[in-house]
Design brief:
144 residues, mainly beta, 60s Ribosomal Protein L30, Chain: A, nine-stranded mixed sheet, 60% strand, globular, binds zinc ion
């Protein structure tokens, strides 16, 4: 039986990330600045360069695909919780090239913003803390 905790929507922020910034760092900075520790993020826009992660479940390590050319952000969805007491954005991104081919995965550092419009939603509720999960090797929410 999955364990879920109730959350309540509090408020939201809309903004845009500046040209030539790192997308994950920008989203994380908004959360730190606005003290969002439990939330949701979404974004659309374009990148001059993309770096997308894939978690190799057997090797228990991330592998990264780098796209050294402009792409659209067709979707970015993620959540905000706490890792070692600090807000951590965990997001997945789908990007598309000039032919409309899409690629997606884990939002890593190294995604350079061309233009990006984002939303950050704040929830209240029991805080979700990430801790190392032996089974997957990932920092997952401690639901106990
Ligand atoms: Zn992920």
């Amino acid at each position: 039986m999955p364990i879920a905790v109730p959350i309540t929507f509090e408020n939201a922020y809309m903004g845009r990330a500046e040209y030539n910034t790192d997308l994950l760092a920008e989203l994380t900075d908004v959360c730190i600045e606005q003290n969002v520790t439990l939330g949701r993020v979404e974004a659309i826009g374009a990148l001059t360069k993309a770096r997308i992660g894939y978690y190799d479940q057997a090797e228990r390590t991330y592998k990264y695909e780098v796209f050294e050319y402009p792409v659209e952000i067709t979707n970015l969805t993620g959540n905000v919780s706490l890792k070692e007491g600090e807000p951590m954005v965990h997001a997945h991104i789908t990007v598309s090239d000039e032919n409309g081919n899409a690629y997606g995965g884990h939002l890593a550092s190294g995604n350079t913003v061309f233009a990006c419009e984002f939303m950050v939603m704040r929830f209240s509720g029991r805080s979700l803390q990430r801790s190392f999960d032996e089974t997957t090797g990932l920092p997952l929410w401690d639901m106990k």
